[in-house]
Specification:
The chain is α/β, with parallel strands linked by helices and 280 residues long. It contains eleven helices and ten strands. Strands 3-2-4-1-5 form a five-stranded parallel β-sheet, with helices on both faces. It has a five-stranded mixed β-sheet with strand order 6-7-10-8-9, with helices on both faces. The structure holds S-adenosylmethionine.
C-alpha cells in the first residue's frame, strides 16, 4: 500500500485523524491523503464538508457510521478494494469513541489494505497536559450519564493502577465530579476543557475543589476528565499552596511565584496568581 505524499494512492482504507478544534492541527500527510483518495467516508457530511472546504478539497463524501446496515458497509468495502478511500470522524482520531471499528475489522478480515494516519486525539492531549502519571493510563471512553452505571464503572476501573481518562460533557460534569468524590475519595482529578481552542484550560484538584469552581463558573464546551491512579499523592491543599506561595513571594513577583507553584503542584495558575496578589 502506498503511503500518503506519493500519488496516486493505491486502493485501501486510509484512517485519517482530523483536528479537535484548531484547524491548524492537521498533518501534511493527512491533507495529501484527503487530496489523493477517491472518496471520504465520514460521520456527518456537513461537518467534514466544512473541513474539506477549509482545505480546498472537493472529494465526494460518503456518510458512514458503525450503525450502517450491512449493504452500506459492503458497498464501502467493495470501493476500498479498488480505490483509495479515507475514513474520518467529526473530530480527532476515528475509532476513538467514534465510528470505524466495524469497518476496519471487516476490511482486515477481507485482507484489504488498511493504514492509519496519526493526529489529534483529545484523550492523548489531555493526558499530556494534566500532570498526572502518564506511564500507564486507561482510556474509559465516555463516562456514563446514568448514576448507577457511572458508579459501577468508577468502582470497577478505580482499582486499576493507571491514570483513568474519560470523555465527558459539560452538562454532566458536576454529577461526574460528585460521583468521583463519593466513589474514589482523595483522588486528584483533572478537567481538560476546550482543548486546542480559544478557551482551552486544564484545571486539577480534588473533586470537591473542582465542584466549587465549576458551580461558580458553569463549564462549557468539550471535556476530558482524568483521575489519578490509586495511591498517587493527593493534590496539595490551598493551605499548602499558600505556604509555598509565601516562600516564593519572598524573592519573586506574584506572577512568577504563581507560575513556579503552579508548575510544582499542578494547581491552577490563575487561582494561584489571585492568591499571590491577595497575599502581597
Ligand atoms: N475521536 C475523538 C478524539 O480522538 O478525541 C473523540 C470523539 S468523541 C465523540 C467526542 C468527545 O471527545 C467530546 O465529548 C469530549 O469529551 C472529547 N473531546 C473532543 N474534542 C475535545 C476538545 N477539543 N477538548 C476537550 N475534549 C474534547
Amino acid at each position: 500500500m502506498r503511503k500518503a505524499m506519493e500519488t496516486p494512492l493505491s486502493p485501501g482504507l486510509y484512517i485519517v485523524a482530523t483536528p479537535i478544534g484548531n484547524l491548524g492541527d492537521i498533518t501534511l500527510r493527512a491533507i495529501a491523503t484527503l487530496r489523493g483518495v477517491s472518496a471520504v467516508a465520514c460521520e456527518d457530511t456537513r461537518v467534514t464538508g466544512r473541513l474539506m472546504h477549509h482545505l480546498g478539497l472537493r472529494q465526494p463524501l460518503i456518510r458512514y457510521d458503525d450503525h450502517a446496515d450491512a449493504a452500506t458497509r459492503e458497498a464501502l468495502l467493495e470501493r476500498i478494494a479498488v480505490e483509495p478511500v479515507a475514513l474520518v470522524s467529526d473530530a480527532g482520531t476515528p475509532l476513538i469513541s467514534d465510528p470505524g471499528y466495524r469497518l476496519v475489522r471487516a476490511a482486515r478480515e477481507r485482507g484489504l489494505p488498511v493504514t492509519s494516519l496519526p493526529g489529534a486525539s483529545a484523550a492523548i492531549m489531555a493526558l499530556t497536559l494534566a500532570g498526572l502519571p502518564s506511564d500507564r493510563f486507561l482510556f474509559g471512553g465516555f463516562l456514563p450519564g446514568k448514576t448507577q452505571a457511572r458508579a459501577e464503572i468508577l468502582n470497577e476501573l478505580g482499582a486499576v493502577p493507571a491514570t483513568l481518562v474519560f470523555y465527558d460533557t459539560a452538562p454532566r460534569l458536576l454529577a461526574s465530579l460528585a460521583a468521583i468524590a463519593q466513589t474514589l475519595p482523595g483522588r486528584e482529578v483533572a478537567v481538560a476543557r476546550e482543548l486546542t481552542k480559544l478557551f482551552e484550560e486544564c484545571r486539577s484538584g480534588t473533586p470537591e475543589a473542582l465542584t466549587e469552581h465549576y458551580t461558580a463558573h458553569a463549564p462549557r464546551g468539550e471535556i476530558v476528565l482524568l483521575i489519578a491512579p490509586p495511591g498517587a499523592a493527593p493534590p496539595p491543599s490551598m493551605a499548602e499552596a499558600e505556604a509555598l506561595l509565601r516562600a516564593e513571594l519572598a524573592h519573586a513577583k506574584p506572577s512568577q511565584a504563581a507560575g513556579t507553584v503552579a508548575k510544582a503542584t499542578g494547581l491552577d495558575r490563575k487561582a494561584l496568581y489571585a492568591l499571590a496578589m491577595a497575599l502581597k
